Amino acid sequence: RTVYVNGEYLPEEDAKISIFDRGFLMADAVYEVTSVLDGKLIDFEGHAVRLKRSLDELDMAEPCSKDELLEIHRKLVEENGIVEGLVYLQVTRGSDGDRDFVFPSDDTPPSIVLFTQNKPGLADSPAAKKGAKIISIEDIRWGRRDIKTVQLLYPSMGKMMAKKAGCDDAWLVEDGHVTEGTSNNAYFVKDGVIVTRPLSNDILHGITRKAVLRMAAEAQLKIEERLFTIEEAQGADEAFTTSASAFVMPVVEIDGVALGDGTPGPIATRLREIYLDESLKAAI
Ligand code: PMP
């Protein structure tokens, strides 16, 4: 694989980052994951805008322009022959060659790393046909989940807890209400109404969430952005999650309770089709 590190395209085994890099020592880093379908980038603009917001919120410098970012994405997709897959991008605050809680001076260049992941069958996913089984766990992450940082240890532990329980993923619960999934936004559907938590610092402002809610509104589906509990979702007709890497993923079970007939629901299935179709048309 060819990867990109701080201005250079290199074979992955030659790519190097300092051990003093604050991304490595302090999770002082933000990231984006953009999916590739048909060799094209899905919603690059949305990811670029969110990356800028994450950097601004953390007073981190932009490593390069949006146009340069697009060029790097495209070059890696082409070099690595990605037809269906992902482009991972990470920007860290870099390092001034030592470890310190205080941020290094403003002239310290940020580090930027990009690599591709080949995922044949991403769109026509068997997992989406089956639907996901979810467990719920307490949300003990920090209070700025709207910033897309690489602090992914707890979400990672959540996925492992789900796996151990024979499930696919976990939904996080804070003060009795679902925040989001470990790596996706969470929804249920009851009597034709799509319910999801409103945007705040408590959840990531999903690029896919924004697109799917727009497409749902265009399809005349009703949407309610409000807090909800696991019990309410368990009593729903269907449920789903959204993320840039799994699109719209139907949810068929929550804490052992099957939703509807235990297969992907019609609205989730339809939204997945609409999302894939429209995103592919707009891909660049
Ligand atoms: N919430 C969390 C915690 C996530 O990690 C992700 C995916 N990175 C999402 C939601 C979905 O966001 P997006 O649609 O932009 O991938």
What does this structure look like?
The chain has helices spanning 22-26, 44-57, 66-79, 126-130, 153-164, 207-218, 230-234, 266-282; strands at 2-5, 8-11, 29-37, 40-41, 85-92, 111-118, 132-138, 169-174, 177-181, 185-190, 193-196, 222-225, 238-243, 247-254, 257-258. The protein is an alpha+beta fold and 284 residues long. The chain has 2 domains: 2-118, Aminotransferase class 4, branched-chain amino acid transferase, N-terminal domain (D-amino Acid Aminotransferase, Chain A, domain 1); 126-282, D-amino Acid Aminotransferase, Chain A, domain 2 (Alpha-Beta Barrel), CATH 3.20.10.10. The strands form 2 sheets. Strands 7, 8, 9, 10, 11, 12, 13, 14 and 15 form a 9-stranded mixed sheet that branches. Strand 11, helix 6 (207-218) and strand 12 (222-225) form a beta-alpha-beta unit. Bound molecules: 4'-deoxy-4'-aminopyridoxal-5'-phosphate (PMP).
Layout of secondary structure:
Blueprint: E1 2-5, E2 8-11, H1 22-26, E3 29-37, E4 40-41, H2 44-57, H3 66-79, E5 85-92, E6 111-118, H4 126-130, E7 132-138, H5 153-164, E8 169-174, E9 177-181, E10 185-190, E11 193-196, H6 207-218, E12 222-225, H7 230-234, E13 238-243, E14 247-254, E15 257-258, H8 266-282
Parallel strand pairs: 7-8, 7-14, 11-12
Antiparallel strand pairs: 1-2, 1-6, 3-4, 3-5, 5-6, 8-9, 10-11, 10-13, 13-14, 14-15
The structure holds 4'-deoxy-4'-aminopyridoxal-5'-phosphate.
